[in-house]
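Polyprenyl diphosphate synthase structure dump, as promised
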Amino acid sequence: MTEAKAPVPGFSMVIPPAVFDPELERRLGRGLGRVEARLEACTARVADPRMAEIVGHLLAAEGERLRPLLALLGGEFGSGRAEGAVDAGAVAELVHAASLHHDDVMDGAPVRHGVPSVNALWGNRLAVLAGDWLLGQAARIAVGLGPEAVRLHARTAERLVLGRCRKVTGSRPGADPFEHHVEAAGKTAALFSMALSVGALQSGAPRYVVCDLGEFGERLGTAFQMSDDLSDVTSPSSLLDRAQPRARWADGDGPDWAGVERALEPLPASLAVARTRRAVDGCLARARDVLERLPDIPAREALGSICDSVTTRAA
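structure tokens r here:
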């Protein structure tokens, strides 16, 4: 009897099933399962069950797990230990989850991943502390991955904070608001780049491959964030999903996508959307150029398919 294949979380959201090499799909499925086990083990470390519920809330509200998927795909470019790429995926997801806790507090967001946000359920103070705790867990795991992984993790945390600061402070006097928004998208670029680079490092990939994957992650992450923001601005269903009274945007403390509208306000709406789509297309074109320098293996094809999915999101 043929063994039924368990669905791989997040695959259908970013990579069409037809793209997958069967062996690659099995490896990624096993790897993502181990990432989930790592995340569950992290929440189990909390001595106070009340805090365990809080820090595990968003982690349990399963998203696409794209960042762990990127770490595992990065690990495909070497021949070393797969567990290191699994840990890299867990680090990336923990940092991402921590940033969501902090973002939701600053935005006053009531919903995340289709469930009530941590701040909506337990208040801002515990939400901030939960985010800090998740960052600490990410650092604890990163230490076991070596000095280079620790350096990349620290740089990513710094860029996440700077990216959020740019959203709060707005563009500098005389600066192009659109370019400022592109810079603010760097926090997603940093996470994508870290996931791919550390995954590749853990697998023993050649140095040039690690660097190229990091550059690919930068381009892909910037395009992904801009396409996500574009969808938030142009999609009625997305606006409803994250609906907040417009009055709360006015002081600059609204959701991220309110910042997009403010950044693009000097332009007619149609020109703003067109400019954003051109920027997304440019980032993806550069990402695909980087892919051409990488070894021709199934993981490279999967990464190219993720580029295609971002193109579709921005269309």
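The two ends are 43 Å apart (CA to CA).
lmk if u need the other ones
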